[in-house]
Design brief:
heterodimer, A: alpha+beta, Aldehyde Ferredoxin Oxidoreductase,  A, domain 1, Aldehyde Ferredoxin Oxidoreductase Protein, subunit A, domain 3, 3 domains, 6-stranded mixed β-sheet, 23 helices, 17 strands, about 40% helix, about 15% strand, B: about 130 residues, alpha+beta, two-stranded antiparallel sheet, two-stranded antiparallel ribbon, globular
Chain lengths: ~575, ~130
């Protein structure tokens, strides 16, 4: 059936692995993916634990549709307590790993403890092994995965680079070289467990009720909905298309968010990328193929995605596409999140500009910039400091007012002063500044809604957060704009029981509140739901958002309205009534 | 005869063809039971895309000692009752697209379900010369 009903629990300290039944009650209440991973962590993690200790757990969670032919369901949720923020952290990674795990017979893997020395966890044919990884420890994610791929036929992998090994709080987990579970230091959690890679090979299949009818309905949906004009930008352009949208709306972070338009935007925009595109590449079961395999004379990468173009391009004052491609490749190989790495480089550049501290980095200087990823990943030279990330760097040297982060997670590529809803989205995202929990800019700056007003933003962000929480738990990719009704129809057909859009909405709200409860337990509250002073105090100097800021009193108003709509108290705490209502 | 043909330059590596084939012919989504083999992965030399499909070479028909595989109007027919599970067809198939099952084998019947799912027309039905 859609779920395998089995979870694999591996303790790296004892070297023991055991299969246990999936908690079916939780699967109904939280679906899978993001929600179910958070539920397991909420129940199993002791409050206050050190995210880099053996007590943290790493959860790899599939969804009910993983392994079926439903489009854009290829992602895997990877979750733990975040070493960057201390909050709950769930990431999603594309590629082909999730399906392989399902075909290997598991809905999820929960990894506990810490291995005595570097290991690779391999899962295949009902056998779980810990292989010695001493030989590949110290190597990049690319070299590691390519060597494993050559040695282990038919397996799919999750790997870390040097950044994960060195417990860098912006370390990511990679798969198929260029796909990442990027944010919040999820790769450092893997590194803290001495886990260099997870390898999985399936053999089984996934069954749904009345498969021929199911396939006919899904194929029609694929043609008429997934591959309709609303989504085909993913195939024709992919996320680089957003460069033009942010540039023309004055929301493209430039020179550490000092500006919101970049004079060289066209050099790093979608049309420039199309000229170096060698191929399109998809995740499993996805006809939209967001991946752009880009190749220039010097560098090749699948990407860069919009976030990388914005934060490692415009935000570092770099308008040289080949340099951004190379920076992207270096981050992928070292196992670094490009969003946080780009922000950190940009912050260091502004520190020099302001005379706070000089790491030798300058806006627009390619040579210094290209040295950053390897140094951060190994904590060498300036990397020893830069690896701290923006918040800790500011605490050490100063510049807090322009340290662009929330709860310790660096800003994604959308300027909140040019789209106020994004400010609330960053402030209230469960893992710190994140654009994937809610993306209100789509209807504000990119759409019809006034971007420079508090009105309507609280409700918009709340609805988007709840919708996405459910969507990422059923595991539909962000890039398929599939509505709740359609999601419910697909889930009903795959699960053989009725799931309604209203139920999905409720599940999304439940998940968002559970994540909030996790963070509340860790001491987070209204004091943490805020933005760097730059957003409140500094007017944007030019472009379509010229003269704009997000006045603090407006932000406070939106936040208060948001808490009210959420049914939380004035301190942003989940109330007993809400806990009862959602069955938490 | 016309047979399934793979165009690597168009393939995005989504594996919908594998899912469609196994779903339609085996009643489950299991890419390893697909009667074609398409791979797209990054190697040291960059993105490598390759694919193998049944081109009606008919080596299996010639090799089968039990007459369990026959060709009729451009389609392979498999007779489970006649099959002795000797595995010869699997080993002689030049495209390695015959799937060994617990009992019997899966041969491509040119049903074109995979092509119907391919989002980029990387699988088409073309005249082949054997």
């Amino acid at each position: 059936m859609a779920y395998t009903g089995r979870i694999l629990r591996v303790n790296l300290s004892s070297g023991k692995a055991q299969s246990e039944p999936l908690n079916e009650k939780w699967a109904r209440e939280y679906l899978g993916g993001k929600g179910l991973a958070i539920k397991y962590l909420y129940e199993e993690l002791k409050p206050g634990l050190d995210p880099l200790s053996a007590a943290n757990k790493l959860v790899l969670m599939t969804g009910p549709l993983t392994g079926t032919i439903v489009p854009a369901t290829g992602k895997l949720s990877v979750a733990a307590k975040s070493p960057a923020t201390g909050t709950i952290l769930d990431c999603s990674i594309g590629g082909h790993f999730a399906f392989e795990l399902k075909y290997a017979g598991y809905d999820a893997v929960i990894i506990e403890g810490k291995a005595k020395q570097p290991v690779i966890l391999s899962i295949a044919g009902g056998k779980v092994r810990l292989q010695d990884a001493v030989a590949c420890w110290g190597r990049g994610a690319h070299e590691t995965e390519l060597a494993l791929q050559e040695a282990m036929d038919g397996f799919k992998f999750l790997v870390i680079g040097q950044a994960g090994e060195h417990l860098v709080p912006m370390a990511c987990i990679s798969s198929e070289l260029y796909r990442q579970a990027g944010r919040g230091g999820i790769g450092a959690v893997m590194g803290s467990k001495n886990l260099k890679a997870v390898a999985v090979k399936g053999g089984g299949g996934v069954v749904v009720p009345d498969i021929r009818t199911f396939m006919a309905a899904i194929n029609k949906l694929r043609r008429e909905n997934t591959m309709s004009d609303a989504n085909m930008w993913v195939y024709t352009d992919g996320t680089p298309m957003i460069v033009e949208l942010t540039q023309t709306t004055g929301t493209l972070p430039t020179r550490n968010f000092q500006q919101a338009v970049f004079e060289d935007w066209e050099k790093i925009g979608s049309e420039a990328l199309k000229k170096v595109r060698a191929a399109k590449k998809a995740c499993f079961a996805c006809p939209l193929a967001c991946g752009n395999y880009s190749r220039t004379g010097r560098a090749a990468v699948e990407g860069p995605e919009y976030e990388t173009l914005a934060l490692c391009g415009a935000n570092c004052g770099i308008g040289d596409l080949e340099a951004v491609i190379e920076f992207n490749r270096l981050c992928d190989d070292c196992g670094l999140d490009t969003i946080s790495a780009g922000n950190t480089a940009a912050f260091a550049m502004e520190m020099a500009e302001k005379g706070i501290y000089d790491f030798g980095l300058r806006f627009g200087d390619v040579a210094g910039y290209l040295k950053v990823p390897a140094l951060i990943a190994r904590r060498e030279g300036i990397g020893a400091d830069l690896a701290l990330g923006v918040r800790a760097l500011a605490e050490k040297y100063g510049g807090k007012e322009f340290a662009m982060q929330v709860k310790g997670l660096e800003f994604p590529g959308y300027e909140p002063r040019g789209s106020w809803g994004m400010g609330l989205a960053y402030a209230t995202a469960d893992r710190g500044a994140c654009h994937m929990r809610a993306w209100p800019i789509a209807v504000e700056a990119f759409g019809e809604m006034d971007p420079f007003t508090a009105e309507g933003k609280a409700g918009l962000v709340k609805e988007m957060q709840d919708d996405n929480a459910a969507k990422f738990s059923a595991i539909f990719c962000d890039f398929w704009a599939v509505d709740g009704e359609t999601q419910a129809r697909i889930l009903s057909a795959a699960l053989g029981r009725e799931v309604t859009a209203a139920e999905l909405k409720k599940i999304g709200e439940r998940i968002y509140n559970l994540a909030r409860l996790f963070n509340q337990r860790e001491g987070f509250g209204i004091k943490d739901d805020t933005l760097p002073a730059r957003i409140f105090n500094e007017k944007l100097p030019g472009g379509p958002s010229e003269g704009r800021l997000l006045p603090r009193e407006e932000f406070v108003k939106i936040l208060a309205e948001y808490y009210t709509l959420r049914g939380w108290d004035e301190g942003g705490r989940v109330t007993g009534a809400k806990i009862k209502e959602l069955g938490l | 005869m016309k047979a399934l043909t793979f165009h690597p330059d168009k393939c995005i590596g989504c594996k919908l063809c594998h899912l469609a084939c196994s779903g339609h012919n085996e009643g489950q989504f299991n890419p390893r039971l697909a009667r074609l083999q398409v791979t797209s992965c990054y190697t040291r030399d960059g993105l490598a895309v390759s694919g193998r499909t049944c081109n009606l070479d008919l080596a299996c028909v010639r090799a089968c000692p039990a007459g369990a595989i026959a060709e009729k109007k451009g389609r392979l027919k498999f007779n489970l009752e006649a099959c002795t599970d000797c595995g010869l067809c699997v080993s002689v198939c030049p495209n390695q697209v015959i799937v060994e099952k617990d009992r019997g084998v899966g041969v491509c019947v040119q049903c074109r379900t995979c092509a119907g799912w391919c989002p980029t027309e990387a699988l088409t039905f073309e005249e082949v010369s054997n």
